[in-house]
Known about the structure:
Elements: H1 3-6, H2 30-46, E1 51-53, E2 63-66, E3 77-87, E4 91-98, E5 101-111, E6 113-119, E7 125-131, H3 132-144, H4 156-175
Bound molecules: nickel (II) ion.
Amino acid sequence: MSEQKLLLPILIVPDPLLRKVCRAVTPDDMKRVKTLIPQMFATMYKAPGIGLAAPQVGALLRLVVIDLAPEKVPTPIALINPEVIAKSEDKATREEGCLSLPDQYADVTRPSWVRVRYQDEEGHKHEIEGDGLLAACLQHEIDHLNGVLFVDYLSSLKRNMLLRRLAKDQKERKAR
Ligand code: NI
């Protein structure tokens, strides 16, 4: 399949699908999931981004893809039914962005380390743990599966400012 055919449109805030709680992937979903995973990776790399959750492409399933360093050492990981099973009390603050809120960035404070359990395409269980960018990315993407966006961690003042700026940008983009 050509790269172009793999690309999916990314939903932008305030699309209501981005606020839905996604359901767990079941064995019956695996055919759809196996189609979706390469489409999600292609869409994420093209954007470009380091993580993408299924609801961002309109699929309300518990599935995310990540690749923290696609240009250096590509490490694509598809996580099916991921869940945070342990996290540190220590917090870390990093600047985050989101493909569903293009060009908007803000500092977000989260646990600095997490361990996540997930399944692969064959149904095997795995765990991944880490701090730094990996911890922030895992939490950000898993949040998407619960309809949570990084702006939800900001003060209402900051959030409203950012959402207004996004709405204005999107309006201008459409007008062009
Ligand atoms: Ni995001």
